[in-house]
Each structure stands twice: as structure tokens, then as C-alpha cells.
## 1
Amino acid sequence: MTDLTTTVPAAATSRGERTRRVKPGTVLAIVLSGQLMAVIDNSIVNVAVPSMHADLHASGASLQLIVAGYTIAYAVLLVTGARLGDILGHRRMFLGGIALFTLASLGCGLAPSAGALIGLRFLQGVGAATMIPQVLSLIQRTYTSPGPRARAMSLYATVLSGGAVLGQIIGGILVTANIDGTGWRPIFLVNVPVGIAVLVFGARALPRPNVRDGRSLDVPGLLTLTPAVLAFVLPLVLGQPLGWPAWGWALLALSAVTFGALPYIERRVARRGGQPILPRSLLGLPGVAFGIMGLFVVMTVFGGWLFAFALEMQDGLGGSALRSGLAFIPSAIAFALVSLNWQRLPARFHIPLVISGFILNGLGLVLSSLLLRSGGNGGAWLYVFGALAGGGMAAAFGPLMTRVLSRVPVSLAADASGVIVTVNQLGIVVGIATFGTLYLNLAGALPVHPSLAFTLASAHSYLVTLSALAGLSVAGAVLTVLHHRSSSRQPV
């Protein structure tokens, strides 16, 4: 892939710039490195919470905000970041986001108090929301041919899934190592040299800003969508730890009303000659809406599984955070292998592959949870069924995302990136909040040292939770059928 070159057309570059040749493989390596940092940072903090609590004397609410602050800022600002990339240039926004994310990571690693760490975690989320939407936009604009784009999207999918697992493994190693008595701080400081490297190479190799004339912020749309997402994410992230207070339900109701008003507002923006952040020209493309819903299901199942499995391995079975992360390795390997090789199949097999992937994912989840129903550790079969679930998830996610993006013209690349990345992130949040809450409500209070009775109760909770996730995965197969029927009206 690295031997390819592509020409950035003069029409896509900013005024006065000369056409230049760019190596797509170099662009891909740089943007996926930034993507990997952001994904890892979304999961690495979980394993360090006990260490932070002891070192900073943080309250429970402070710990929740340390973990959730990043996700809240990230999810809320993704669509805004995507539109700004289309206006100011994807290169400029990506590098600016990397710089902000790296500086915030340095601040997090040196934070003297819980309050400072909370603020810096929000700043990290802003940096991630600035750079991450540019990744898909740069991939789409760099890889214009279907074959190379499919291979690039396979690597993107691998990073998206593998980074979450890798975060738990790296976090467990760094916290356990307690390098020079620094405890949890290296989980943030490790971003600094990586961020600097991405910034240096990105400044040299990424194509110059492709600023487009006539593009502007959709202020009414952003003023509607941003609070709608915030009102949706905030209670989902903080609701269960706080006992689902009344304000959380009120925010969810407000979110539903605001989302309902968004199509009307966006139509008014379009009638006035503006550029809506959710253009009908994007969501109206045959199959795109059903495809995006399918991607939401994939990430919801992934988020719920990742969270429930970590709880079951650590709190239900009494294992360490490192063991929990290592137990995900077979599923991560299977995900990577399928993601990197599915495009070898002829195009006529891609839809059956997605449908089979959803079904195999659900089967793997149910079988792996049945292994733990008697309180055992599952043995080698736990890894086998975990690999089945991970491979099935990859078979569903990679081809489906590629099919959706293949139907999006380059002129809508930034809007599509913002919508899809936001949907993916919201899917993870919904999965963690919904199915994590289901597991915790069924299992009850998590003890420091689980008894046999609690282990059996948690195993039952895990079985019910993963069965529900499997049912949702089957729903994803149904959405794929609807996507195929709708998109067949517009063959690629």
C-alpha cells in the first residue's frame, strides 16, 4: 500500500497552492497513529482508577468525571470537528488536534489534583474530537479507488477495535509496573512521544489543506445537535454510578425532543442556501441510513461486551486488570485477521459476509457466557469463542462501513465522517451504559473479594447481558438485509 501515490487536484487545494503528489501509505500510517492514540486513551484509564483514587484522594464523583470527561467532550464535538475540517482543511485540523491532545496528555500525567485532571481530560476529548473526524476524510480523499480504499478501511477498522483492547493491556502493564513510583501517570505520559512523532511526520507528509470555497458552519444545526448529544451522553455515562437521578431522565427526554426537531431545523438551513451538517443528500442516499444504523449496532455490541467482560473477569471472577486485557487478545487477533482479509472475497459475497458476521458474533457471545455460568474461568474454549465473536464482529463492521462510504461522494466526505464517527462513538457509549447497567443491576454491588455466591450470581448476570447483546447482533443482520435491498437501487 505504501508504494501508491495519488495526486491532489488543484480544485481540492487551497488558493495559490501547487498540485503535489502524496504517498497514500504514509498518510494512512500517520492518521491511524493518531486514531490509535485516541482509541487507547478511551479505555486505558479504566484500569488506573484505583491508583488514581489512592494517589489523588479523589471522590467517587471525581473519578467518574475523570473517566467520562474525555468521552463526553469527544462525542459532543465530533460533528463540529468534521465540519471545521471541511472549512479549514483536514490537515490543519488533524495536526491541531494532535497538538492539543498531546499537550493535554502531558498535563494529565503531571496533574496535581483531581480537579485539574478532570479539566485536562475534557481538553483531551476536545483534541480527539478535532483530529479524529479528519481520519476518515483524509482516507476517503487519499484513496479514491474502491480496492485500495477497502484495504485502508480494513486497517481503520482494526485500529478502532484493537485500540480499545490494547488500551486495557497497556494500562494494566503500566500501572502494575509502577515505573519509578509514578503509579497511574505513565498511562497519559506515553502519549507525549507518540503525539510529537505524529505531529512532526504529519507536518511533513500530509497533503496541504483542501479548503473548499463556500463551505460554512451550520450554526443552527450545531446549536441543536451539540446540546442534544450532550443531553444524551451525560446521563448515560453518569446515570448508573449516581443511581439514575431525576435530572438524568429529564436530560434524556430533552435529548429526544431536540433530536426530533433537528430534521426540521436542517431543512430550514438547506432552504436558506446553507450547508446542513446532516444533509438530506447524505442520509437520502440509497442504503446509507440502514448502513449507519447497522454500524451503530456493531459498536453498541462491542462497547457492551468490552465493558461487561472486563467487569466479569475482574469483579466476578476476581482476576486482575492485566488478565482481563490479555483475555481479549484472541478476539483482537481474529478481528485483525478478518479485517485485513475480507476484501479478498468477491464483492458479491460481502453482504452475506456481513450478515454471517453479525450471527457468528452473537453465537460467540452466547457460547462464551455459557462457559462461565458455573463460576469457572472457561478454559481454552473461552478464547475460542471470544475469537469467534471478534471475527464475526470484524466481518460485520469492515465490509459494512466500506459499503456505506463507497456510496458517499467526495463532496460529502467530511459530513459522512462526522456522522459515522459520532454514531460509532455513541454506539460504544450506549453499549457501555445500557448493557453495563443491565449487568450491574443483575449482579448487585461489586465486592472487593468475590465470594462463590457472588461469582455464580455475576455469571448469571453475564449470561443474560451477553444474550441480550447477541439479540441486538441479530438485529444488525436484519438491518444489513434492509441496507442491501435499499442500496441495490444504486449499484456501486
Note: Strands lie at 6-7, 21-22.
## 2
Amino acid sequence: MPKIAITGITGFVGTNLKNYLSSYEIEPLSVRYVPNQKFEINADAIIHLAGKAHDLKKVSKPTDYYEANFELTKQLFDSFLASKASIFIFMSTVKAVADQVDGILTEDAIPHPKTHYGLAKRQAEEYILEKELPGGKRVYILRPCMIHGPENKGNLNLLYQLVAKGLPWPLKAFQNQRSFLSVENLCFLVKKLIENKEIPSGIYNCADDEVLSTNEVVKIISFVLNRKDRSVAIPKVIITGIAKFGDVIRFPLNSETIQKLTENYRVSNQKIKTVLKIEQLPNTAQSGLEKTINSFINK
């Protein structure tokens, strides 16, 4: 039975992955950036989840991202190369490529990250890709889009709170399409990569098969809560005006918030499905979101 070392195992993805891979011997690997350090790897595979997440409150220092997401990954990857471990999985992000997407994001897109979070992740990707792999070793760089599932604390929770309180969703007039990723689908993909020695090393996008609009997400939340969908199509010109006013007085409904809630961000998962020889992932986008919302209710 292969032994798997996981960094960031106490986080959202790590907790779900540990449970999903319960048939394997799992070893938590505690890591934190310290200059010139090396790690002793006593496992067959390493899943590197640890790092600094995107800071929505914008209070983090740029160096925090580069130390946690780039320098630490360099140290861990160098330790992997010097070890007997055969598999290295690095959890990157679609933000290492683009903050905004026109069309559908594929692995062939030329990276143009804009944030320190995305830049640091991309630097880590480049470092891994430029190294020559010894025989028998496999390396996978995964680029997930917005991940959701039990214990998720991101924007989906904010939408859930809005619907749960009976407040109207005011942005129905905006039509968008964006990709999500069920944490169960992510765990499924990771397990397949570990088990299949024929999968070539490289970069792989991770996303659910279907795309959803934010309006559809609100409908799903309303359905799970057995609430009426109270979405309101306030004219875009009025919303834009409110957003500009919010920029000045630091109101929650500002231009950046509107952008995040209504932007298109479609991600292709075709490459990883092709190499795994599967037509679809176990969970649909809707079923995965329903599980996520139910976890909010139960909590």
C-alpha cells in the first residue's frame, strides 16, 4: 500500500482528501518556510497543498505569498527529487494563468497572472517544469478553479447567507458563466493520478464538467433551502452607479465585488479527462453544490 505525505492536511482540501484516501497510509507533513531548509521524505507520494491562500481583505504582505507559495514549494520539490518518492502533486491554481478569462481557459493559455498570489504560484510552476525528472518519477501540477464542498468558507457561503436571510439577489440582470470544482471531484482526480502510472507528468486544469451562472447558483441554494428565489433584475446602469458610489465610501457593493460576482470564468477539464480516459466526473456541478449547501445547513 503506497504511503502518501500530505502538506496542508488540516485545511479544507486536505481534510476532504485525507478522508477520501482513507484506504492509503496517510502521513501529515508539516511544512513552513525557513531559508535553506530540506525535508526528509519518507513516502511514495507527496501532495503539496500547503500555502498562502488569496487574501480577500488585502492585508497580507507580498513576501508572504512568495515565501509560502514559491520558496517553500522549491524546497519541498528539491527534497522530492532527492528522495525515493515517485509522485509529486502540486496544488496550483487557475489564477496562476489569468484573473479574467475570455472564452474557455485551457492548459495552452499563456500565463499572465496579476496578483501576488497568482504570480507566486506561477513561479512555483515554472521552477518545477524547468527541472529534469529522474526516471520513475511523475509530477502533476493541478490548476483548480473555485473549489467548494463541506467546510467551504468562500463566496458560496456569502451567497448562502444572503438567501438564508431571505434577502433578494440584486444582480439577476447580469448573465455570466463560470466553472466550479466539487472537492469530491478533485479528490477523485488526485486518486486517479496516484494510481495510474501511465498518466504523463504535466499541468492539468481541474473543474466540474458543467458551467453555471451566479443566478443558477442562487436558484440551487434557494432550492436546497426550500426558499423562493428572490432574485431581482435591477438595471445594470443603476447597479454600476451604486458600485461607483461604493468605491468611494467603501460600501460592500463596489466595482470589485460586482466584477467577482458577475464575471465569466470558464475552465476546460478536457485534458485530464482525456488522459484518464473518462467521459465525465463522478459529481455534476449541481449535485456538488447541493452537498456544499446542505453542509452549511447541517452546521
Note: The longest helix spans residues 62-81.
## 3
Amino acid sequence: MKVTKLRDIEKTVCAKTEFRKEDVCLVVEEVFPAILEELLAGNDVMIKKFGRFTLLKKEPHVCVDARTGKKTMSNYKAIIKFKPSVLIGNQLAILTNPEYDWGDEE
């Protein structure tokens, strides 16, 4: 499995547009901190035709170790949830079930 890095995304955007490499690098490197900043402010982030990012807060709760039966308290957790758009969901469904045509719904 290939891991795509920010530099790979920057190269792809440069190849598909007429923007300068420096401008593309600046925008790509600022997008993700901006998304994180909005999530930490309590806002959902919706990217049209891609999906929605939501920050979930999981409160501490009692956990039981299955092997020992020992009870402990879990730590507070912040979880980023991503829900893909219908368009992305359909494309993923085609990858996992290519014989079924999902159409071009949005």
C-alpha cells in the first residue's frame, strides 16, 4: 500500500493546474491546520463533494480489562470522524462491488 504525502498532493495539483508550485505548497500546507483549528473551535468542516469532518468528544468511563477483570478509568478522547459525501461513497462502493453500477448521483 502506497502512502501519499503532502508533497505528492502538491505535485498532483501543480500538474492539473497552472498555479505556481510555491502557491500550491502554501495552500496545501495551510488547509489542514485550518481544518483542525475549526474542529477545535467546535465547528464541523464540510468540503463540498468530499465529505464532513466532525470532532467527537469521548468522556472518561470505566473500562474492564477482559483478561484480569481489573477496572480502570479511560482518559478523555477527542476523535475526528469523517463522513464521505454521497459522490465519494458511491465511488468507494464501486471499488468494493464493481459489478453494481451506482450511477452518478450527488
Note: The beta strands are 45-47, 51-58, 62-64, 71-73, 77-84.
